[in-house]
Structures are given as C-alpha cells and as structure tokens.
Amino acid sequence: MPLEEQKKSRLYALKPLTDRLPAVTRPEGHVQFRTKMFWVLAILVIYFAMTNIFIYGLDRSNVIDFFSSLRAILAGAQGSLMHLGIGPIVTASIIMQLFAGAKIINLDLQDDEDKSVYQGTQKFLVIVMIFVEAVPQVYGFLTPAAPFVTSLNGAGFFGVLPAGHGESWAKFFIIAQLFGGSYLVFLMDEVVSKWGIGSGISLFIAGGVAQQIFTGTFNFEPANAGSRIPAGAIPKTVYYLQNFSASQLANGGIEQLLVQPPNPLIAL
Predict the structure, then answer these.
(1) Residue 2: what pLDDT?
(2) Nearest CA among 200, 180, 175, 10 for reference residue 90
(3) By three-state DSSP, how is residue 167 classified?
C-alpha cells in the first residue's frame, strides 16, 4: 500500500479543487442522434451569439488585434466574449499531452482514477491559461473606454467600489468578462464532446470559418468608412458592374475585383 501511494502522481493533490469546478455530467447510456443534433445546434447558436457580444467597457475604436490572421484557427472574434477563442483550451491540452507523453506526470490514462485526475488538472490548467492570455492583452492593447473608466473612478461605480482606481477596476471587469466567456467555451466544448457529435473545438473552428466565408461573400456593408463599395465579394462585383464603365473595368477594375482585398473573387 505505501508503495502504491508513492507511485501516485502529485496531481492528486489538486483533486479536491478540481472536483469542485463546474463540469458537464456524462450521459448515462446511449444518446439519440436527435438529441446530439439538438445540442450541436444549440451550442453553435450560443457560439455565434458570443462572437457578437462585445466586451462591456472596451474601447472598440482602439483595439489592436495581433492575432487577426489566426482568428479562423482560434475560433475567436475581436473585442467580443470570444476574444480569446479556443486558445486557452488548446494550450492547456497541448501542455498536458506533452507532460503525459514525456512521463513528466505519473498518470496512467488507461486507469479511470488517473484519467479523472488528468481531466481535472487539464480543466484547472485551462483556467490558468485564460488568465495567462487575458491579463497581458488587457494591460497591453485592450484599452478600456474613457467613459467606463470615469464612471468607475469618479463615482466609485455608484458607491459600491472605492473611488480613485477607475482604470484598474475597468481592466479587472474586462478580464472577468474574458474569463467568463472563455470558461463558457470550455464547458460548451464538454457539452459537444459528451452530448453532441465530435469535438466542440472542431465545431467552433468550422463555425468561425463558415461565418467568415458567408460574411466575406455576402456582406453589403462598406469595407471602409466613407466608402460606398461593399465588402462582400458578390455585392462588390454587382457594385462594380453597375457603377463602372467598360473602360474603367478594363483599366484595373477587373484586377481589383479578382485580387484586391478585402474578399477578392479569387478567394472564392
């Protein structure tokens, strides 16, 4: 018995904590296909809703997105509750897989108890990675809106918070929103994995890519402020054909349609 206890991983010390973290219960027995499709569609609707809910108190005009080229992979949306996307989940999963594969952590994933500890530790690591990714971004380039800072600084948020630390409180609330959105994404991934079809991460990536393709193809809004040219590939093509003469199309108009961003026709 002492030898068996000695072989146990130190991660068992986290078990009392990880057992108290919110989790999605595994279904008992077979889940019908109709139920699986319901949960997949429900989670997909929630995902799209979260990509359109912007972080309260964030200065949208002053948001620098260093990960814009990776948005399709991260399944996130700039300045929204999905700003971090699946980044914390994927990072935590990679770290745990590397540690388990290199035998740095003494866990046998074939054993039910060790597997439970592994999954609980990964869940705890997701929380850590959310803060690791959120805090530098908030203190780096996610700027709180000036009116929001003023409301927290001058009035002390209706007397609830001590006045004089408006910017710090504003950043705290932004981090809290990023944490809530990212952890909800993790729970939605569990729902899809246990009650739906496939993986939630794959679903979010596919949903994000599909959304970008749809908006890039049919978006009627102008690409730039003050411009009348739609951003979508098809509306932009219709606009060019209606408003450009044959000579204008021959002298660069066709090239703009085919290769000039945003959303050139060649991308379709």
Answers:
(1) 46
(2) 200
(3) helix
Q: Is 235 helix (H, G, I), strand (E, B) or coil?
A: helix
Name the amino acid, one letter, at 174: I
CATH homologous superfamily, domain 2-11+35-198: SecY subunit domain (1.10.3370.10)
Domain ranges in the chain? 2-11+35-198, 219-268
The radius of gyration of the chain's CA atoms, rounded to the nearest angstrom, is 24
d(CA 200, CA 126): 15
Tell me: pLDDT of 244 over 60: yes
pTM here is 0.82
Q: If we measure between CA atoms, which residue out of 97, 94, 98, 62 comes closest to residue 78?
A: 62
Unique residue bearing structure tokens 């003023």? 150
Amino acid at 157: F
pLDDT class for 192, splitting at 50, 70, 90? very high
d(CA 117, CA 11): 7
- As a whole number of angstroms, the distance between CA 107 and CA 113 comes to 9
Q: Is residue 259 within 8 Å of residue 266, measured between CB atoms?
A: yes
Report cis status (omega within 30 of 0) of the bond before 22.
no
Q: Tell me the mean pLDDT in the region 29-36.
A: 92
